[in-house]
Amino acid sequence: MKSMSSRALALALSLTVLSACGSALAAEDDTMLISPAPSGIAVQLNGEALTFTDAVPVAQDGRTFLPFRAVFEAMGAEVSNEGNTITAVRDGKTLTMTIGSTEATLTEGGASSAITMDVAPYVDSTTWRTYVPVRFAAQAFGCAVGWDQDNQTAVIVDTEKLLDAALAEHQFTYMEKYLAYNQQFQEGIWDISAQFDGSATMFGAGPLSFQGSMDGTTADSLQMAAAMNLKMDLTAFLDAMSQVAGQASELTAEDQALLDALKSEGMDMEIRADMEKGVMYLTMGGSALETLGLPADTWYSFDMASMYGQMGLDYTALIDASKTMDASALLQTALQSADLSDKDTAYATVSALVNGAAKVLADDSFVKSGDNYTTTYALEEDGTKVTLSFTLTMQSDKVVGYELSMDSSTSVDDGEGGQITTTTAMKAGMDAENHMTATVSMGMDPLMDLSLNITGDYAAGDQTPETELPAGATVVPYEQLIAGALGG
């Protein structure tokens, strides 16, 4: 079982790493799709090239496969092969796969979880060697995986090894206390109320302003029911867009009625979700939506496992991690957003992120001021600047509140001799009375600006949320709604 320090550091590192390199996520190839299929593939583990003797990496069906025994032994695992079952054991984790099956099992601490792969292990008919898909094989043991297209190299970084090394050099008692504080909100029933407002502009047009409220209940952080109302004022935005287009703003009576309804009545929304089952339902109401052709009393369903799967994430593993607050899976996902597309820099990049973040989150990096303990993090490279501040409020040697703030800016060439700068400022926190506040502002000059303010309260509840639909409810898959909106 992982120590409290491991879990606390992993949770905190996830946030820090995501803050530092989240913009790289869109550039990552999450499926390890190989194009074109290479004639020879190299593999790098923790910055070192792996040597293969009687069986070499291959590309098949657009995926990279590695010799089972060679790659797992290089990662420090003990392997066995009995019939169609192949097994790898490392650091208390047992990965079991079956030849020809996309279903695998990962067992740790007596608990097993299923992993669904998009391709199956197979036996090469020429060498009689067993091959496994590199991404699933490596991620099962907490490794980050990338692909260097130019050098036809699969890049593997053992993030668990890096994490263990960071833990050995520092103490993280403050983060342990924060994890214990945060755990209370993951257990039991909590009633949540919130109010929010904000505005947005696009190409100087606007603002589009909005405001709303939400009341809901959660149980063990996995079941949820919430009701929300959202009001929007589109008048200034539409007027400005008409001026940009050089046309007068002429609205029909029906259009004006729609705008008036959005501003005065708004849209009503209700959400019911059971995240453990992987289902979420949403219904919307209001005269504005009925005018747009969305029928009342219709619930839209979301298949969470499918949605996360399309993003390359194992939904079951993430839910299992959330139950125990073991954030290793979240850390692995965060580190996957680092740039692993260059074999010459990948390992150094991930190592620097883990070691730098670990140092910032260690006890000796927190500065005391009254009841507050604050640590800061800064990064500046390749046109990106990030500063992060994390403050814990302590009373009687326990965390009773926190504040997290982050500011970032990224500048890129616009292709015409200038630059486009994107800025983000976020601040979120909760005080000792469980009152929460959050502010977010984003800007991409001169394209858009967005601001959002949220306030709310958590209070212990006594009634579990309703996650089932009303009897006889009309249910429409979300994909069907999107297809209809796109004319599909």
Automatic annotation (TrEMBL):
Record flagged with keyword Signal: yes
Highest taxon above the source species: Bacteria
Signal sequence residues: 1-26
The Copper amine oxidase-like N-terminal domain, residue ranges: 45-156
SUPFAM superfamilies: Copper amine oxidase, domain N
Keywords recorded for this protein, A-Z: Signal
Pfam family of the protein (one): Cu_amine_oxidN1
Protein's UniProt keywords contain DNA-binding: no
The protein's name: Copper amine oxidase-like protein
Organism name: Intestinimonas butyriciproducens
Phylogenetic placement of the source organism: Bacteria, Bacillati, Bacillota, Clostridia, Eubacteriales
